[in-house]
UniProtKB/TrEMBL annotation:
Keywords: ATP-binding, Nucleotide-binding, Transport
Organism for this UniProt entry: Moheibacter lacus
CDD domains: ABC_KpsT_Wzt (cd03220), Wzt_C-like (cd10147)
Listed name of the protein: ABC transporter ATP-binding protein
Top-level taxon: Bacteria
Entry similarity comment: Belongs to the ABC transporter superfamily.
Amino acid sequence: MGNIVLDIENVSKQYRLGEVGTGTLSHDLNRWWSAIRGKEDPYLKIGDTNDRTSKGDSDYVWALRDIDFKVEQGEAVGIIGRNGAGKSTLLKLLSKVTKPTTGTIKYKGRIASLLEVGTGFHPEMTGRENIYLNGAILGMTRKEITRKFDEIVDFAGVERYIDTPVKRYSSGMYVRLAFAVAAHLESEILIVDEVLAVGDAEFQKKCLGKMGDVTKGEGRTILFVSHNMASVKSLCDRGVLMQNGNIVLDTDVNSVVEQYFAYNIGEEFNRLNFTPEKGQFLESFSIKSNLQNVIESGERLRFELKLKNPKSNLLIDIGLYNTQDEKIFNLSTSYFDVDTKRDKINCIFKNNLVEGNYYVNLLITDSDKREHYSKCLMFNVLNGDYYGQGRLTEKIPSKILIDHEWE
């Protein structure tokens, strides 16, 4: 066993719905009297699992239940799961924002957390003052912070506003500076929640690069929560999958991501027709195959768009993604001279996708208005007769199939 920097043993967290504490004086007195007599807290024996999809019988909910795992120095651990699985609650416990109901958390070194935009920032203080404040909270001397100061400001790209109170920052500037502070000040453990989603794509890439340097170059430990599976896989070697407040899998990140989709996608990946509740341009959007509800590699597929208020200058973009949020390809009217002043427009293409689940994002825009529909179509592709020699029987180690031949 290597150098353990984080040891979480039998940690659980219970909340009472709609209340602070237990919500009533009698409940709090019961807890206090049980503690005085050395008895178990009576409210630990009740409570529902944290499943938001079903109505429970109790006012008490276990946000986390019997969490056990250890993290070694230099590990990058991706914590994934659906909304409400307990990921953020776990990070709040590790960051000491709240205390566990049961169990212990032992750690070595200092912890820097980035749980939400501007965590640890004082809105009335300037960017410069907040950098020194955060460093002081982490136990660093003023001299140590000054040594890192220019690097932090340069990374965040907020030099012009460094002496402006952070309450005047945009959410993007806020998170750029907050991440730069957390990543550059010398903590042994860095905890990052979904907060990076606030930044633009270029900054997110920069952050992932910095976090990679932090673990591989500086030997620091990272716990990373994200719903972007491509980011998790690029940064982390180990994954922890959470569901309803429990850890259901803790192993290599590829296996964990695969299991996440197996748990959480299922029936959802069969949405072949989409009708928006409201929209300026789109009436309906669907994908048609030769086999109706089954889509196979090798066949010709057709995206059908029915438009309302069609205009001649519309730009239509269809982006296709796999379940790890990697963009596979883009289909766009900008590549062709398309008359969009029609009620119905089709886009036909040969399906060169390997077996797996996919989703579609649709963008329709003109010079004034923009409509974006995320994950509006979802479908599963089976290995079909792509090369005209019968169905493909092997799992293809690729993202797409390419027409080719051998001589």
